[in-house]
Fold this protein.
Amino acid sequence: MKQSLPQVKYDLIKLNGGWDLITPTLSLNPGYVKDAINFECSQTGGYSRIDGYERFDGRSKPSDATYIIFAIASFTTVPVVGDVVTNQTGTPTAKVIAVTSTYVAVTKVVGTFSEGDTIKVGASVVGTYSILSDLISSKVDAQYLALAAEQYRTDIQPITGSGPIRGVVAFNDIVYALRDNAGGTAVNLWKSSSSGWVQINFEYEVSFTAGTTLPADGATLTKGGVTATVRRVMTESGARTGTAAGRFIISAPSGGNFSAGAATLTGGATVTLSGIQTEITLVPGGKFEFVQANFYGRSSSLRLYWVDGVNRCCEFDGTYVCPITTGSNPDQPKHVAAHKNHLFLSINSSIIHSGIGEPYKWQPIDGAGEIATGDTITNLMPQPGSQASGAMAIYCRSNTFILYGTSSSDWNFVQFNTGTGALDYTIQNMRDTYVLDDRGVSSLQTTLNYGNF
């Protein structure tokens, strides 16, 4: 008698819903996650492994590592893992990651090896390179890729210094980072490069009042036997034709120190210096926040602006750090935004902004201004506006405000939400604006109903 097998029954469970730690297990719908390690909600639905992260200092990424195989018919000298091999010219190099009885696997190849080359370690001949005729297995391929990645990974070094990384930013396709020095007495700026982290040295600053027209960046400042190159002309008040005052960011002086009095510049300009130059330094202890802006209209004049709550705001062009003096006391802004061609900074419960297109000018006569919020400011974020106006969200610890308008002539500061604000440094713009508050994640969205947001 033929016996039939029982019918197979199955349920389709869609893996969605997310991570739920609140709902009792027996009350959870299928597809929710109670516990997971190294998984995340996938953009296409379900859950996927987190891609992870890897060390970085500007050198080649370990995950991009490759390897090649030198088939050696007869070994004269057997290399060992870690040896550097060359050919008979000694020009191309590679590092050994594996050795078998028939071939050598290498990575970090510099230059070109060709079939028939004599492979050497130093002066010792290993053998003649030929192309491997047999395919290696997927498992061995994965193992060699992992060994190659490890060779690149060990090259990557942390930023020199002490304590946490104070800030990281990508600017003009280069990554910059700030960290306290080894003694914890100052903050250093580092730049990623093909050879690892490179420290960017800070310049000097000296105050001036102008006697004639101001020079352009790159002029030579001379007073007596002391000279320096002007890296940046920072006009803080007045006009460039005779009444300007501000600071020069200069290279290290040659011939001694500057002193108060008349000085000249290449091109015929004359200025009066206020006194000795001072070296630019950043005190430790802050947390950096960045914004990119172009107040000058040229494609080459994109600048990076940062604040950290313990130093002056700084402008950075990728080479020179230029502290901005606002005249506030204390002059230690914590949050920064670029909005309607103004540079906005927060200091405690006040919002201050520069003149229009003038990030160095902070006097009302130049269009600068200040707005008091009555609450500690925690986040700034420009919002979508009309072609004739604009809006910026100002989050405080317990309240939310919107600043409408385009300049000090028509600002309209409106309290948007009373009793709901945001925690420091939590704002993100992902089409809509999101912040984190005591109640959880909140969003700010544009709408055609009941007003702007």
